[in-house]
Write a structure and sequence with these properties.
Elements: E1 8-13, H1 20-27, E2 35-39, H2 40-45, H3 57-80, E3 84-88, H4 94-103, E4 108-115, H5 118-128, H6 135-138, E5 150-153, H7 159-170, H8 178-184
Helix pairs in contact: 1-7, 3-4
Length: about 180
């Protein structure tokens, strides 16, 4: 059963290691209503890691696509029940944007662009050690859509500062919002 009013969605879009997860965690105590932080990595972490056989490249690609399609629908389901959701998700493939535009039609989506210098992204990847080196640099489509409502740069600004910027700008956004502009194109 859908809520009388769907929840709002904040989509933190940026390359891997740009700071989306840290900003999402910093947003939670700053937002007035209860919000869910639902990073795509948490959905992937729910998937079994032991397989009876080794998956080939096509099977891995299919599995990842199904996971991401499910993620889109899980966010929509939470919001349809009146929950506010923070997505931590790179729009690194064109089909992701297209599917989200359809799946989240009718929802109040605030698109936040999380930027970071290439040099800092590379430094963070090396420090993390849990991502392939060069992943962030390869995600050239993340910002290709060209639309956003709020932009933050984590090259020098910390997660708390970026979260405060988002909260400060959140309720004063002009219409149509970034997702609505993308849908109209």
């Amino acid at each position: 059963m859908a809520a009388d009013r769907p929840g709002r969605i904040i989509l933190l879009n940026g390359a891997s290691s740009s700071g989306k997860s840290s900003i999402g965690r910093a947003l939670l105590p700053l937002l007035a209503d209860p919000w869910f932080l639902v990073p795509v990595d948490a959905i992937g972490a729910m998937r079994s890691t032991v397989h009876t056989r080794v998956l080939d490249e096509a099977e891995i690609g299919d599995m990842l696509r199904r996971t991401r399609l499910g993620y889109h629908r899980a966010v929509a389901a939470l919001a349809s029940a009146g929950n506010h959701v923070i997505m931590d998700y790179p729009l690194s493939e064109r089909w992701r944007v297209a599917d989200l535009l359809t799946t989240l039609a009718g929802y109040d989506v605030t698109l936040v662009e999380v930027r970071c210098s290439p040099e800092e992204l590379e430094r963070r990847e090396r420090a993390r050690g849990d991502r392939p080196l060069g992943l962030a640099g390869s995600q050239t489509l993340v910002y290709e859509h060209g639309e956003y409502d709020i932009a933050v740069d984590t090259t020098t600004a910390g997660p708390g500062e970026c979260a405060r910027t988002i909260v400060r700008e959140l309720d004063g956004l002009a219409s149509p919002k970034g997702f609505d502009r993308l849908r109209r194109r």
